[in-house]
Amino acid sequence: MNFLPKIVFVLYLIALLWLVLFKFSFDIPSVIMDFHSRTLNIVPFLGNDLREMADNFIVFVPFGLFLSANFTHITMRQKLIIMFTLSLAVEITQYTLAIGAADITDVITNTFGGFVGLAIYDALSGHANKEKLDQSISIIILVLLMVIMLLRTLVFRVRY
Question: Domain extents for the chain?
Fold first, then answer.
C-alpha cells in the first residue's frame, strides 16, 4: 500500500487551511484577535476580484486530485459534496471567527477547482498506472508545498 498520497494529502490540507483561514501567518492568535472583519457575501460573483477567484480555483485543484487518489471507493458526487462541504465550512469559520470575508463565490470557485482536479485525475488515470500516477501527483504537490513554504518564510511578508 502506498502511503505517500495519504501523507501529502494531510500536509496539503494543513497548508490549505492555514492559507485560507490564517493567510500563512505564524501568529495565528494574533490573526484571530486582531483581524475582526466579519463580512458575508451571498450574491455570487458580486464585486469579486478575478485574481482572487483564480487563486481559490487553483488551490483547490489538488484537493480533487487527492480525493481521487485516496478515496477510490466513493462516487464523484460524494467527492463533490466533500469539496463543497469543506469549502462551506471554511467560509463559515472565517465568518464566525471574524478573520475574513465569507463569500459564496469562494465556495463556488473552490468546489469548481476541486471538480477540475477530479476531472484531471480521471483523464490521467485512463492512460497511466494508478500507483505511479498517485506517486507523481504526490511528489509534484509536495515539491510545490515546500517551495511555497520556503517563499513564505524567506521572501513574502505576512501582515500579521
Answer: 52-145
